Amino acid sequence: METVLKTDEHVHNILDKLLFPNTSKQFFSEYFDKQFHHISNRSSEIYNSFITIDDIDAALVSEKIKPSDLSMAQNTLISFHHWSKILPGHSVKIDRDKIKQNLYSGNSLVINSAEKFIPTLDNVIKNLSDILQSKVWSNLYITPSGYQAFNRHYDTHDVLVLQLKGIKNWKLFDSPIVLPHASQPYDKSGFDLSLLEPIKELTISPGDILYLPRGVVHEAIALDQLSIHLTIGFKPPIVADILDGLHLELIKHESFRKGLVQNSLNEIDLKKSFISLLNEISFKDLIKNAEKKYSNSDSKANDKNIIKNYTRTESISLESIVKKSPGKIHIKMEGQHLHIEKNGKQEVLPFFLNPILNSIITSGDKGIKLSLIKTTFDKDNFLKLIHQLIKKGYIELI
Length: 398
What we know:
Number of helices: 12
């Protein structure tokens, strides 16, 4: 018998809605950080209040969507050259006819950060960010029957999988690293994931939801028809994040500001000072600070000068000086794609942006004048690219 979520009377928040008939309280006590969880036998229309096939079609024809918002893959990512057009000045444009051809050839289409193009989904993501006290984002996967988007892998963030259309077969495997950190991705783990034996095989149907803790190795293949599923990724604060706040407390005390030169410190005295300080510190405050760091991105902190910053961006020129915006940014090259992550948001950009971003990031707080960045782009297209990088929050004007 199908479970149908009819009204808000049954639930208190969006997480309860997604997990119905389970509750968020049950989720955190029994599954979060512990084990995968599959909820099935629900209405195939349970997600229609915030995402439909029409919403997806509208997003794909939207003028807002850019090549950097899309990826295509068959077991691994394929070059953007296969589904886009390279225009004069090296700018890239989506070629929707090529995308259709690729889908017929078995390649999956991925819409990265799908909430940017579907307002109702964006509301869900924002609400989940508050509830989970985490950075939250969504990706949409459209996979032809008989194919899979990516080979066996694990993620370094938690995932909720919402099946929208079609049926997928999922195989789950033990984790070589339990709850891996972002610095421990599967391709650098040193483990041969192909040697693992599945511990569970699941059939995921429309209306189902699957929770995968970070680190759970998985692979999925679409069965007898086109499959569409939405992943909601989230990165909760972890215990180690408390150390960030602890560092700020330590440097308030003279004994922890002393230099480490030729064993000049007495180890016993240092341990006593450390234990004494730990007894004074409010760990509740440290935990709250860690949660705040994750639920509020660095970009929100810069929203105080929205009009001022926007006006400055309008007048950008080759004489402008830019630097990396606040917060950690992770960049990784894979073939013809540049994977970039900041504030919990993941995006795939064209490879030719790598030298531009590297020049800016390595310039430090002093920044770099745009005229000093080596590029093959003409002036107008180069400034447009810089404008987009500022808009996305990766860099900022000085």
